Amino acid sequence: DGKYTVSLIEGDGIGPEISQSVKDIYKAANVPIKWHSIDVTPVIKDGRTVIPDEAIESITRNYVALKGPLATPIGKGHVSLNLTLRRTFNLFANVRPCKSIQGYKTPYDNVDTVLIRENTEGEYSGIEHVVVDGVVQSIKLITRQACERVLRYAFQYARDVGRTKVRAVHKATIMKMSDGLFLSIAREISKDYPDIEFDAELLDNTCLKVVTDPTPYNDKVLVMPNLYGDILSDMCAGLIGGLGLTPSGNIGDECSIFEAVHGSAPDIAGKGLANPTALLLSSIMMLQHMGLNEHAEKIQTAIFKVLAEGKTITGDLGGKAKTAEYAEAVIKAL
Ligand code: IPM
Ligand code: MN
């Protein structure tokens, strides 16, 4: 029927409410997408925590998924489901743009950063052990293969979106071997992209500079190991108003999962108060990834219009609108 099917992981807490907004807006905008809702609640198979087969099949078949927040248990005995998804599908690059929202005042104007995070290894490898009582080791695993593919992706991404510079963010002065490897591979790969300027910056310095004046980063793609990207992307999100406004895409060779980075907000779940903007903007990245650029443009313009007017915005942005009222305003603005 000429429609694409997209797997939808509604998620926990506010997930179903914000997913509903996406579905309503997409329907009103006649986006040629059918949603296939899947449950990724892990099952134990041979003593390992795995995603149910039906969910894996759905995402594999559809190539793209949109994902709401999944609660991450802290402590022993649980593997984060978010991480399991990234690893199961080998989603090696996590793309996190942060662009100022017109009409939403923060101490910074004109922020437009793009950060690409290695998404499968580093401190997230999950290799930890007790050496002796009171002494533990957490392994930061870095492989040439994972560095190469995320770095190549970053250069290609810069070229595709018309950014002229790629900057590797690292701490090779201290993590001499792991970040050193990342950095030397970055230098190697930069030779294949003579049209893109390459340089490197120490992570602590990037933090200082980004919060002092983010605008010099507006022509760059920042690329970095996993944990640095986790932390620095929240910092960049803070420049534009927080995780309620920032999208992300987990990109792999076989499939990609677009997700809101924020949590499941159990305190407001079910109350119709949540802001669906981050999930909506993630879905816009998804539409662009699928080549549905006209629909992406149309919905994004409507979202930005409603946010700029500031009349029908949710509580986190200082407004009084309920989730559904905000979605309705976006539909009217289409
Ligand atoms: C993110 C989140 C995840 C991460 C958590 C939920 C496991 O903070 O997507 O940035 O640490 O990567
Ligand atoms: Mn994070």
What is the element string, with H for helices and E for strands? EHEEEHEHEEEEHEHEHEHEEHHH
Low-confidence stretches: none
Name the strands of the widest sheet in spatial order: 2-1-5-14-13-6-7-12-10-11
**Which structural class do the helices and strands define?**
alpha/beta
Helix content: 25-40%
Query: Which cofactor or ligand species appear?
Result: 3-isopropylmalic acid, manganese (II) ion
- Strand percentage lies at 15-25%
Intertermini distance? 24 Å
The average pLDDT is: 96
Query: What's the alpha carbon Rg, rounded to whole Å?
Result: 20 Å
Most strands sheet: 10 strands, mixed
Provide structural commentary:
It is a single chain. The protein is an alpha/beta fold. It is 39% helix and 20% strand. It is built from ten helices and 14 strands. The chain has helices at residues 15-28, 53-62, 81-88, 144-161, 178-190, 203-212, 226-240, 277-289, 293-309, 323-333, and strands at 4-9, 33-37, 43-45, 48-50, 64-67, 93-99, 112-118, 128-132, 135-138, 165-170, 197-202, 220-224, 249-251, 256-259. The strands form three sheets. The protein has a ten-stranded mixed β-sheet, with helices on both faces. Strands 3-4 form a two-stranded antiparallel sheet. 43% of the residues are buried. The chain binds 3-isopropylmalic acid and manganese (II) ion. Manganese (II) ion binds next to helix 7. Octamer of two non-identical subunits IDH1 and IDH2. GO terms for molecular function: isocitrate dehydrogenase (NAD+) activity; magnesium ion binding; NAD binding.
